[in-house]
Design brief:
The structure is a single chain. By secondary structure, the protein is an alpha/beta fold. It has 20 helices and 28 strands. The longest helix has 20 residues. The chain is globular, with a radius of gyration of 27 Å. The structure holds adenosine-5'-diphosphate and zinc ion (ZN) (2 copies). It comes from Comamonas endophytica.
Length: 720
C-alpha cells in the first residue's frame, strides 16, 4: 500500500463559508508548496494550491485549518497534480498570504482570483496540450524587426534615469513626479532595459490603470524590446483578454519566457520568478483599487511585493496621490522624510509649454449656456485652423434626470435611491447603478403632463449642442466640423474604442466630447484646447477626496493639450485648458491655473492632518447589505457590540464610527449601510480587524441576522 501524505490546499471556498481557508487532503507523494492540484470539494472538483503549514495566511485565529475536518473523517485524496507547471514560487505565496491577511480575505480566494480562469477549467490533459506549443517563440524573435535608434534623453530624463540606476541605498520606492508630456514612459523603458540587460532571468512588471486605453504603451514596449528579446518577451494581462490569451500570458510570465508583463491591477499577482523592477504608471489612479471581492490596492501591493522580492519600484504620476506625495516628502531638520524617494521632471519634452489655464466665471455668462461665448469662439477658431479640441464632461447620457415642472415628478429608479438617466439616442431611461432600463414615457407618469424636461447635461447633450453650434464652421479644407463622442456608451462593442481613438489620432475628428476615459494617458498630438464644461458638480460630493480627484482629472485632461511643441509652433497656436465654473476662487481651480500641484497638495495635506484623515490616519469600512436599512444597521451595531464585549486587541486604538446609510442607500432593492473604522496606528487597525473577522462570521450565522444579504470589509477604502 502506498503511503499517504496530508497536504494543505488553499482553494476558493463558497462565499461566507465558516470553515477554515485551507483544507487538508491526502496525496500519494509529498508535494512541494506552490504545486497546483485538483481536489474534490463537495461534489465538484476544483483547482487548489499546495500551501505550507507555516505560511501565515488570512485564516482567522482560532480556526486551526489543518484540524478543520472532524476527527475520524477520512481525508479525501488529491485528484490530480498539475505537474506540467512548476510550483508557484515562495515569493508569490507570501504575496498572496500578505494580501489575504491585510485585506481580510482568505488565501484561497486571493490565490484563485490571481490565477488565469482557464487554469480552473482545463483538465490536466488539456493543459498539457496547451503547454506544448509554447516553444514557438524563437521564430517570432527572428521575425521582429531591427531596433529603432534610441532617442536622446532630455537632461531631466537623463538625471532621473541615473538616479534610479544608482538606486537608493535602502531600496526605497521611487516616486517619479513628472509633468504630463515630460517623457515618463521613456524613463520606464530605460529602467526596464537596464534591469533586463543586467540579468538574463530578470523580469519587469509595468502596470497601467486601464490597458484598453493605452494600446500605445503596449506598442512602445514591443517596438523597444521585441528586436532584442523577441516578440514573445512582452505580454499583457488585463480583463479584456480571452481565457486562452490570459492563460498564455500567465504561463509565459510563470515560466520566465516573458520578460515584461504589461497589465492592469490584476497583474500585480502575476507569477514572476525573476521580478526585478516594477513600474506603476499613473499611480494616483483609482482603478488600482479593486472594488469588488477582495478589495485590494494593486499599487500598495506592488510596493510590498517590490520590497519582499528586493525589486526596484517606480511609481509615476503628474498628480501623485496625496499618500504617495506625503510618503515622498523630503527630509528636514525636524522630519526624517518619507519612505519614498521623489524624483522630479517638471518640463515637457521639446520645451512644449503646459497649457494656459483659463477660468470662465459662469455667474457672468448668459443663463443656461452650456458653452460660454468665449469658449465657443475659442473652439471655433481651433476648428478653422484644423486643430483639435477635447471637451470633458464626466457624465454620460443626455441628461441625468427627467423632470415634470407641474407635479415635480422625477425619473427615479424604482429599485435604487438614484435617478434614471435620460438617454436620448435610444429614448430610454437607464439606471447607472442597477441597469434597470425603460422606454421614455410619452407623458408624466404621475400627472399626465406631456412636457417632461431633461434636467442637467450629459455627454450626449453636449455632442448634440456642439453639432448645432458648429454647423456652419468649416475646417481649413472647407469640410464641415466633425464632432464625436467617446464614453462608455459609444465603446461597448469590442474594438470600437480603438477605432474611435484612431480617428482622433489621424485628425478625422475636430472636437471630441468625452468622459474621463479620454482625459488620461493618451498622447494626442494635435489637441490644442481642452475644456471642462461643468466641473463644479464633482465638488458637491461629501467625499473628502473629491477635490483631490477633480484636481487630478483636470490636470490630466490639461495634459492632453499641446503635447507637441513642433506642431504648436508650426500652427502658430498655443495650448489652452478652459474651465467653466461658478466658483473660480476655489482652491482646485486657482492651483490648476498655475499648474501648482505641490501647493495644492500641501494645502490638502494640511486639511487632512487637521482633520485626522488619511494619509495621517488609516481607515477600514465594514458594509452590510439587507432588504431593510434596519437589518443592515442591526448587523453593524451587533458587530460593534461584539467587539467591545470581547475587548478585542487594538480596540483602544481604533475609533468605530456609528453605522450610517451609504450615500446611495439603496441599489437594486438592497439597502446598504456602512461603518467607518479609523486609527492613527495601521498595525492596531490590522490587529483589530483580524481579531474581529471570526466574530463577524459568527454573527452572520445567527438567525437574527438571516435577513442580511452580505457583509464585507474594505481596508483603505477610496470612497467613504
Ligand atoms: P508622459 O508619460 O510623461 O506624459 P510620454 O512618455 O508620453 O510623456 O512622452 C511624451 C512624448 O514625448 C511622447 O510622444 C514621446 O515619444 C516623446 N518623448 C519622450 N522622451 C523623448 C525624448 N527624449 N526625445 C524626444 N521625444 C521624446
Ligand atoms: Zn407631472
Ligand atoms: Zn437602479
Amino acid at each position: 500500500m502506498t503511503a499517504l501524505f496530508p497536504v494543505q490546499i488553499a482553494l476558493q471556498m463558497p462565499a461566507h463559508s465558516a470553515v477554515g481557508h485551507l483544507l487538508t487532503y491526502a496525496a500519494g507523494a509529498r508535494l512541494a508548496p506552490g504545486t497546483l492540484v485538483r481536489v474534490p470539494l463537495g461534489r465538484r472538483e476544483v483547482l487548489g494550491v499546495v500551501w505550507d503549514d507555516n505560511d501565515s495566511c488570512g485564516t482567522a485565529p482560532g480556526e486551526a485549518p489543518a484540524q478543520a475536518l472532524p476527527e475520524g473523517t477520512q481525508l479525501r485524496a488529491v485528484s490530480a497534480v498539475l505537474d506540467g507547471i512548476a510550483p508557484l514560487p515562495d515569493a508569490w505565496r507570501r504575496l498572496v498570504a500578505f494580501a489575504a491577511r491585510y485585506y481580510q480575505r482568505s488565501c484561497g480566494e486571493i490565490a484563485m482570483a490571481a490565477l488565469p480562469p482557464q487554469l480552473r477549467e482545463l483538465t490536466p490533459e488539456q493543459l498539457a496540450r496547451r503547454l506544448k506549443p509554447s516553444k514557438a517563440a524563437a521564430p517570432a524573435a527572428a521575425a521582429a524587426g531591427a531596433a529603432a535608434p534610441l532617442v536622446a534623453l532630455s537632461a531631466e530624463q537623463e538625471a532621473v534615469v541615473a538616479q534610479i540606476a544608482a538606486g537608493s541605498a535602502d531600496r526605497r520606492p521611487f516616486l517619479l513626479y513628472g509633468s504630463t508630456g515630460s517623457g515618463k514612459t521613456e524613463v520606464y523603458l530605460r529602467c526596464v532595459q537596464a534591469a533586463l540587460d543586467a540579468d538574463p532571468q530578470a523580469q519587469a512588471l509595468v502596470m497601467v490603470p486601464e490597458i484598453n486605453l493605452t494600446p500605445q504603451l503596449e506598442s512602445r514596449f514591443v517596438e523597444r524590446f521585441a528586436p532584442q528579446y523577441g516578440a514573445a518577451a512582452v505580454v499583457s494581462m488585463h480583463s479584456g483578454m480571452t481565457g486562452p490569451q490570459r492563460l498564455r500570458s500567465w504561463l509565459a510570465a510563470h515560466t520566465g519566457q516573458a520578460r515584461i508583463v504589461l497589465g492592469t491591477r490584476m497583474s500585480v499577482f502575476a507569477s514572476l520568478p525573476g521580478l526585478k523592477v516594477i513600474v506603476v504608471d499613473e499611480e494616483h489612479d483609482a482603478s488600482y483599487k479593486q472594488q469588488e471581492g477582495a478589495r485590494y490596492s494593486a499599487r500598495d501591493l506592488a510596493i510590498w511585493r517590490a520590497r519582499a522580492h528586493g525589486a526596484q519600484i517606480i511609481l509615476g504620476s503628474a498628480t501623485p496621490s496625496l499618500e504617495s506625495w506625503h510618503a515622498s516628502r523630503p527630509a528636514t531638520p525636524q522630519d526624517p522624510g518619507g519612505r519614498y524617494l521623489r524624483l522630479h521632471m517638471p518640463s515637457r519634452i521639446g520645451s512644449a509649454a503646459l497649457p494656459r489655464v483659463r477660468l470662465v466665471d459662469m455667474t457672468q455668462q448668459p443663463k443656461r449656456a452650456v458653452f460660454s461665448p468665449p469658449l465657443l469662439a475659442a473652439i471655433t477658431e481651433r476648428v478653422q485652423r484644423g486643430e483639435q479640441s477635447l471637451v470633458l464632461l464626466n457624465r454620460r447620457g443626455f441628461a441625468p434626470v427627467l423632470y415634470c415642472a407641474d407635479c415635480e415628478w422625477k425619473s427615479d429608479c424604482p429599485h435604487c435611491s438614484a435617478h434614471q438617466v435620460f438617454h436620448k439616442n435610444d429614448r430610454t431611461l437607464r439606471c447607472h447603478h442597477c441597469g434597470f432600463t425603460q422606454r421614455v414615457p410619452p407623458a408624466c407618469p404621475s400627472c399626465g403632463n406631456p412636457d417632461i424636461l431633461p434636467l442637467g447635461k450629459g455627454t450626449e447633450q453636449l455632442e448634440e449642442e456642439l453639432v448645432r453650434l458648429l454647423r456652419n464652421v468649416q475646417r481649413p479644407d472647407h469640410a464641415p466640423a466633425r464632432v464625436a463622442r467617446i464614453d462608455a456608451d459609444t465603446t461597448k462593442t469590442k474594438g470600437s474604442l480603438e477605432a474611435q481613438l484612431a480617428q482622433m489620432h489621424s485628425g478625422d475628428i475636430d472636437v471630441l466630447v468625452g468622459t474621463q476615459m479620454v482625459a488620461k494617458g493618451h498622447d494626442f498630438r494635435r489637441i490644442t484646447l481642452v475644456a471642462a464644461v461643468q466641473p463644479d458638480n464633482a465638488l458637491f460630493s461629501n467625499d473628502y477626496r473629491a477635490a483631490e480627484r477633480l484636481f487630478c482629472l483636470l490636470m490630466q485632461a490639461a495634459g492632453r493639450a499641446g503635447r507637441d511643441a513642433g506642431y504648436l509652433q508650426a500652427q502658430g497656436s498655443r495650448a489652452e485648458m478652459w474651465i467653466q465654473t461658478r466658483d473660480p476662487q476655489h482652491a482646485v481651480f486657482t492651483a490648476l491655473r498655475s499648474h501648482d500641484y505641490p501647493s495644492f497638495a500641501a494645502q490638502q495635506l494640511r486639511e487632512r492632518e487637521d482633520a485626522g484623515m488619511p494619509p495621517f490616519a488609516y481607515q477600514a469600512l465594514v458594509r452590510a447589505d439587507a432588504r431593510t436599512q434596519e437589518d443592515a444597521q442591526a448587523f453593524l451595531h451587533a458587530a460593534c457590540q461584539a467587539a467591545r464585549e470581547a475587548r478585542l486587541p487594538g480596540l483602544d486604538e481604533v475609533f468605530l464610527f456609528p453605522p450610517i446609510p451609504m450615500t446611495i442607500q439603496r441599489v437594486a432593492n438592497v439597502e446598504r449601510a456602512q461603518m467607518l473604522l479609523e486609527s492613527v496606528d495601521r498595525m492596531a487597525l490590522q490587529r483589530f480587524l483580524h481579531a474581529w473577522q471570526p466574530l463577524l462570521h459568527q454573527l452572520r450565522a445567527q438567525p437574527v441576522h438571516r435577513p442580511l444579504v452580505r457583509w464585507l470589509v474594505d481596508v483603505d477604502p477610496l470612497a467613504i
